[in-house]
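hi support,

uploading two proteins for the ticket. first:
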Amino acid sequence: MKKTISILSCLFFIGILSVQSQSIFGKWKTIDDETGNEKSIVEIYQKDGKAYAKIVELLEKGKEDKVCEECKGAKKNKPIKGMEIINGLSKDGDEWNDAKILDPKTGKEYKCYITLDGTNKLKVRGYVGFALLGRTQFWHKVEE
């Protein structure tokens, strides 16, 4: 009986640790929701309790040095590689929200939220107004 309780206790704590180890932070491969092509590697990092994301690698052949021609303000004609595309998500339960995401292809910014969809998949939703009017991409964890 003591052995069974010990085993169950160990399994319980392992389960808790695996859930806690799941995080939005790290490197993610973006997939174009229209074409299905791999587009970039994005690193999500934490600063002052908020989440930010920047493009660390462009995967499309011939576009590795592309600039954001359609962006406005300080980002106009700046390299997409290294560009911050999510600025200051706040944690709200299982969701990170209350920030904007930049689409470097169009130069437009959208409200966004992010949630984990399993252990190695991230649901990224960009929208205008309210969350029903937008589009979703699924990013995949990059194993390092």
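and the second one:
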Amino acid sequence: MTRQDATPLLEVRDVAKSFSAVAAVRGCSFPLYPGEVHALVGENGAGKSTIVKMLAGVHQPDTGTLLVSGEEAAFAGPADAKAAGIAVIYQEPTLFPDLSVAENIAMGRQPRGRFGAIDRGRVRREAAELFSRLGVRIDPERPARGLSIADQQIVEIAKAIGGSASVLIMDEPTAALSAVEVERLFAVVRTLRDEGAAVLFISHRFEEITELCERVTIMRDGAHVSTDLVRDLTVDEMVRRMVGRDLDALFPKQDVEPGAVVLEVEDLSREGVFRDVSFTVRAGEIVALAGLVGSGRSEVVQAVFGVDGRDSGAVRVNGKRVRPGDPRSAMAAGMALVPEDRRQQGLVMDLSIQRNVTLPRAGALARLGLLGGGGERREAGRWTERLRTRYGRLTDPVGTLSGGNQQKVVLAKWLSTSPRVLIVDEPTRGIDVGTKAEVHRLMSTLAAEGVAVLMVSSELPEVLGMADRVLVMREGRIAADIPRPRATEESIMFAAMGQEANT
């Protein structure tokens, strides 16, 4: 019997959901078959999160039907979805940090021994058996506090299958993982698939979809576009259906003749993190810092901007030294930093969109010491419009925006300062392909206007597509300086791993 002949473990049939006058999902249908990994893709705001919340019982459909093993189901809340065998693995797991791994897995269904006491030995044994079944090695007795994001996700998966979940929904599970951690997660997912589970996998990374998934459902503007076998679609066709248009290019790099040196980093060192790091970035040039996780890329740019201290070395902008450990000095010199973690370091989530955009220029916009709404609104409106940001009102909390639009607000916040040097750390992590193209186009435009751009990225296609030069870091040092004509995935990875490339 083929999977198409099997009864879906879960089926979404013509489901719609609105919030006030906004139609978040309309007419969406797709099946989740046993023994299959099914991708759900779409731009930020396409309706993916609303679908996940309906499957998890957080929201109820306005119209349409959910079917579990062919039978119509209605989830009044998350407990109903869990009882139906549906589990959601979120990008940022929510374990109890002071409990052990085994206690987290058994939470809500602890086995009891004599006299009704929790059988802690059985709790540990069952956790160990689940990890063995998944092919991973995690100590069941260690506290959850301090676990990596990757290990936390594995614990959440063990918790789900320990609770007899047959449908797993994985929402951007690889966004914060290294390549090695992604491979381990994929091995776990394949194990679950081979045991007959249905997995709904949400990702913006097409290489993951083509490697892991058998089927893909594409959404656009809340509506179902198509459901097909992955092998029947090219990446270009998936992108075209997602955004509703042909992208001119995902990496619209303009050819710019670099000008004078704007940013100069000389012999920057911090004990145990990086040492003797020297490089320059010229006006109109995009320089990428590449390398494996742990190579020191983000730590270098944090020290350049002054967020972190340094033991020695100098940073100059247009020939003038920037004081170490002093972001205000860096900003005064014309530097801007778009950090890797936009939620924790780039935005104040409870403040409005317009207040976040204008934070760096609050003093300049104030009149008699007071920040007026009119000036703030005009400044924020100008930059959000330029970056094509989607929002309801500028006074809405920035936390209500999708991840891609939050990233645009962070960019707007710093671009409003008219920087001479723009440092961007993982500029497109966790955002959809359409927004990626817009961010890349913006970076290219800024370079053409004479801004010096320093970019940290773990995505080699992004590095190759956007950088004029690639600085490869390995073990805290610059291992290679590769110009654009000679930059390839092989040359970058050989340098990152300390190997000589074969000619």
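thanks. also noticed: The mean pLDDT is 87.
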